[in-house]
Amino acid sequence: MVRLNISRLVVVGREARPLYVSAVQEGSWGDECIFTETAEEAFELLNAELQPGDLVLFKSSNSVGLRHLGDRIALPPTRQPADERSTLL
Hints:
Number of domains: 1
Oligomer: single chain
Number of strands: 2
C-alpha cells in the first residue's frame, strides 16, 4: 500500500476478507488496513476519521450494503438541535 501512496484501506464484509489478509501480508502495518464486518461499521469509522480534503475511493459491493456508503460519507454532518447539545458551564 505504501508503494501506491494509499494511507488507509478499509475492507468491508466477510467475502472481502481475503483482500484485507492480502494487504496485511503485502506489508501493511499498524492500523493502515482495517477490516469491518458491516457497512455501518465502516461508516462509523470513516465518519469519525475523515478530515476535509481527504480523498476516498469507494469500490462498491451491493452484497454488503456499500452501495450508499459513499453517498452517506459525502453528506454534510447533521447538526443536533440546540436543545439536544451538551452545555458546558
